[in-house]
Every structure is written in structure tokens, then in C-alpha cells.
Amino acid sequence: MNPIYIGIIEDNLDFLLSLCGVLEQYPNFHLSTWNSAEEFWANGQSKVWDLLILDIGLPGMSGIDVLKTYHAVEARKSLVISALQTDDAIFSALRNGASGYIWKSELDSLPETIQTILEGGSVISPSIAAKVLLSFRKPQTNQDLGVGVEVLTPRERQILELIVEGDNPNQIASLFGTTVGTVRQQIKAIYKKLQVNTRVQMVKKARQFGIF
């Protein structure tokens, strides 16, 4: 089998190990990994990759920023694997060249997903496909809520979604491989940007914006 060169940008080391564990079962997959977009641009961007796999909520430069630059040069293939489920993240990734978008819980089907993309196809999770369809039926978002969700960073949007789903700071810190203190500071930043004072108000404002 011909070698397939895959680059991976993922800051969650536990998830990165799981991801590599799945892909290393295939001897023709040759992997290179980076923990940030900045590290990728410094050490990996000059190589021609058959597929670039990346998360959206990266520290520093976001995965969306990577896609914008990566796909601006030539026809390339990329796959987003993320826990971020907001419409904004999904549509931004697809608009900026991603050939696929799947959840981090879907690694069992990853080899088949990669093969489909390498053959010129596109892959999105069924639940994402449902979001795409629903987006065409959503009424226009009220623009008079006082602040736009676009002011949130990709990581802040990811934390906001996890909070809406019921996760607490300890669970979020474990998922991201960071400290609880860091997560609490990010939550405070979300409160300030959304102009709210409580979790209930934050969830209500998020739903008003129609980002879930």
C-alpha cells in the first residue's frame, strides 16, 4: 500500500494519544503531530500532507484560522475532529475548506472516514448533517441582544457549549487537559462578553443567539 502522510494538530494530549493509537494500527499511515497551530506552521507546514487532521479550539491560533490559511494555497484535504458543536464552528470549518467534521467520540469509524476523504469525498457526522438542515429553517437571530457571539474565542464558545450541556469546570478542565483555575477565568471572560452575571443568564443568552 502507498504511504499516507497525515498531520495532526491537537492540544489535548490524552485525546491525541487515543487518536494516534487508532491510526497507528494501519502501517501505511505515517503520522506527525503538533500541539498548536503555531507549532505546525513552524515545523510542519512546508511538507505536503495527504490529510491534515485538526481540532477547532486550539490555544493561540484557532483551527478555523489554520483552515483559512492552509486551504488558501492549493487544493488540500483536511478533517476536523472536535467536541465543539456550535453552528458557527461547523459552518466556519466547512466554509474554509474542511472535507469533513466529526465528533471526538467517533474514532471507531475514523479509518473509513479518512479513506472517503482521500478518495475525494466528504464526511460529516449524522448529527452535524441534522444541524445543517435545521440551520436553513432557523429564523434570523435577533441582532439587538447587545453583544455578538463572534466576540467569543473558539475555546470560549466550546466552554459555553459544554456549560449549556451541564458540564462543570472540573469536567471541562479534564476534557481540555488544563487547570480548573484556567477554565474559571475563561468562564469569567464569557460572562463579561455576554454581559451576564449568572450561569442561568449565560445559558439563556446563548440560546437567544441561536448558537445551539
UniProtKB/TrEMBL annotation:
Single GO molecular function: DNA binding
Domain HTH luxR-type: 145-210
SUPFAM superfamilies listed in its UniProt record: C-terminal effector domain of the bipartite response regulators, CheY-like
Domain Response regulatory residue range list: 5-119
Pfam family, one: Response_reg
Statement: the UniProt record of this protein carries the keyword DNA-binding: yes
Transmembrane segments: none
Keywords: DNA-binding, Phosphoprotein
Stored SMART domains: HTH_LUXR, REC
Name of the protein in its database record: DNA-binding response regulator
Organism: Leptospira montravelensis
